[in-house]
Amino acid sequence: MAEVDPSFIQAIEHRPKLTVTEAQGIPLIDLSISNTQLLVSQIGDACKNWGFFQVINHGVPVKSREKLLLASRSFYALPKEEKLKVRRDEVNPFGYYDTEHTKNVRDWKEVFDYTVENPTVLPASPDPDDKELIMLVNQLPKNPINMREAFEEYAQEVKKLCYTLIELIALSLGLPADRFNKFFDNSTSRIRLNHYPPCPVPELALGVGRHKDGGALTVLYQDEVGGLEVKRKTDGEWIRVKPTSNAYIINVGDIVQVWSNDKYESVEHRAMVNPEKERFSIPFFFNPEHSTMVEPLNDLTDDENPPKYRAYNWGKFNMNRRRSNFKKLAAENIQIYHFKVSK
Ligand SMILES: O=C(O)CCC(=O)C(=O)O
Ligand SMILES: [Fe+2]
């Protein structure tokens, strides 16, 4: 066996299977169909049964995505010391980072985080009593020189897709289309460039360990290498999501789970690594304003279906989560079930 840092090694029960289960893939939805009723019901079924789906004819131009992907490839090809010049730190959570931990195991990857609103307003600390806010801006590398432009263009395009999706999700829950829109006015949305280098021990490590996305919605591009696995709701089996050219993979995050009072659950996923090929992926995390108090919507709860969660503050929740990804902590990080109302 190749020598690798033990911090990357997953516990036996969380190690990936090298045989791939691709049957019964996640639903593929064509966003260009003119029958809105049908589209809404397809989205609703996919959110309920899988928490994940792929979309085609989504309106994001291939050339904006290609431009950002190329910028990502040239950034990651730089010497480590160049990349470390834009490293994230305890104060600025945006930029380059290569020691992220998911559930306290190190991920076999490098990331670069870009905040969509520039500046972005966030709480200064995870402490619930600390009301101080900070304004943060992106730190961008000198090279490639078009990195900022590539991010800005891509952000505008994917943002439009996010609104389309959140409106379809609202309709599928029987709500007015714009029910969620105001939460995203001063969004804390973020684009991440993931790079998974080839890994000598793909049976022991993961590119990203199993996790649920904490935000509202994720719009993910994965390249043709593939490696994303989704936990199937019916039987808990890990299902590989086969790369489909020009498709985006969409998943609902914890916030939609809470808003919908568990009707749409945020589903666990992970990324496998590969002994020969490097892999790139680009998630866009569509997240509300930091001050949002996340709770089941009163339009979706009543005496028969009482709220299953207590309200929590998104900004503080996210700060807590990101702190635990930054450093290996002794305890488990914050999760939405900590806000579950006990029966
Ligand atoms: O790279 C992937 O396929 C998944 C990445 C992911 O789940 C994440 O960054 O939250
Ligand atoms: Fe994720």
UniProtKB/TrEMBL annotation:
Residues 187-288 form the Fe2OG dioxygenase domain. It holds the Pfam family DIOX_N. It comes from the Eukaryota. Transmembrane segments: none annotated. PANTHER family: OXIDOREDUCTASE, 2OG-FE II OXYGENASE FAMILY PROTEIN, PROTEIN DMR6-LIKE OXYGENASE 2-LIKE. Belongs to the iron/ascorbate-dependent oxidoreductase family. This is Fe2OG dioxygenase domain-containing protein. It comes from Daucus carota subsp. sativus (Carrot). The lineage of its organism: Eukaryota, Viridiplantae, Streptophyta, Embryophyta, Tracheophyta.
